[in-house]
Amino acid sequence: MRRTGKILNVANHDRDSAALGYVYPVVSRRAGGVSVGINLNTNNACNWRCIYCQVPDLTRGAAPTVDLVVLENELRDFLNELLHGDFMQSRVPESARRINDIALSGNGEPTSSAEFVQVIELIARVRREVALPETVKTVLITNGSLLYRGEVQQGLRAMAKLNGEVWFKLDRASEAGMQHVNDTRTSMNKVRDNLIAAIACCPTWLQTCWFALDGEPPSRQDEDDYLEFVSALLHDGHKPQGVLLYSLARSSMQAEAPRLSALPAEHLQAFADRIGKLGLPVKFSP
Ligand code: SF4
User: Residue 86 C-alpha to ligand 1 middle, in angstroms?
Assistant: First the structure.
């Protein structure tokens, strides 16, 4: 593991910044500390193609077979380094020298891994071994599309015991909107079923990217669709923890990149206010 090099910051999410295969450190502006990322999609494959996606050379597909021994060793070694080595002092700005979470994220959809359940089990094992404080969360950043699978739900239930949180992507709440932004064909009924499954298994936040396309912010209809979808969910007793609302922090690596731009903070705040009226907390980063 490299011990010297550039100080990490919010713009430096280089998956190779600790010179490991699956595990990478990120200083997260949303989480406010060091996030220990786990990238299961080392082949840059996802079943969606969001137009703001930052994954280079993104391809359609699933995660490759995970080498669980390598992953477990990397995670154990890196957590020990963070807890007992000099990585924090040498690589992390002083204001962010705490471990915030272990985050299953990376270059594609993590739940597409056939080893997803085993990965959660090994995270539990390593957390115990290195005596990671219980306050450190285990976060799954997911597009939610595979949550109907029994084994994924099993993994989420195990995550819930590890101070788990699911960040479930919901950028638009209409079929046309999802096709446009996420380049996926799905029905809102399926999205709703997947989201209900996530909420039943583990505390779940909605993760919503709100940005301008060709200079135009999302329409009032986009906002209304979103609010109606969430409102119906709440009405039926399925309550997410809240909404993580954000705009573009880094450049898209997709062909649409030149057409995308971040929204001003006031715009996000106005939408956050509308969501807040449903009784859900909203955390947002301009
Ligand atoms: S779901 Fe995530 S990894 Fe997949 S295309 Fe969208 S942003 Fe990229």
Answer: 33
DSSP bridge partners of 20: none
Within 13 Å and on the Cβ side, how many CA atoms surround 116? Answer: 27
User: How much is the pTM?
Assistant: 0.92
- Do the beta carbons of residue 26 and residue 93 sit within 8 Å? no
CA 29 to the chain's CA centroid:
13
Atom of ligand 1 minimally distant from the CA of 106: 3
**Could you write out the DSSP letters of every residue in 212-264?**
EETTBPPPHHHHHHHHHHHHHHHHTT---SEEEEE---S---STTGGGEEEPP
Q: pLDDT digits over 232-253, tens only?
A: 999 999 999 999 999 997 899 9
Q: Cα(117)–Cα(96) distance, rounded to whole angstroms?
A: 30
Cβ–ligand 1 distance for 40 under 6 Å, the answer no
Q: Distance of CA 28 to CAs 105, 149, 201, 240, 249, Å?
A: 12, 29, 25, 22, 11
Asked if residue 122 lies in contact with residue 75, where contact means CB atoms within 8 angstroms, the answer is: yes
**DSSP single-letter state for residue 110:** G
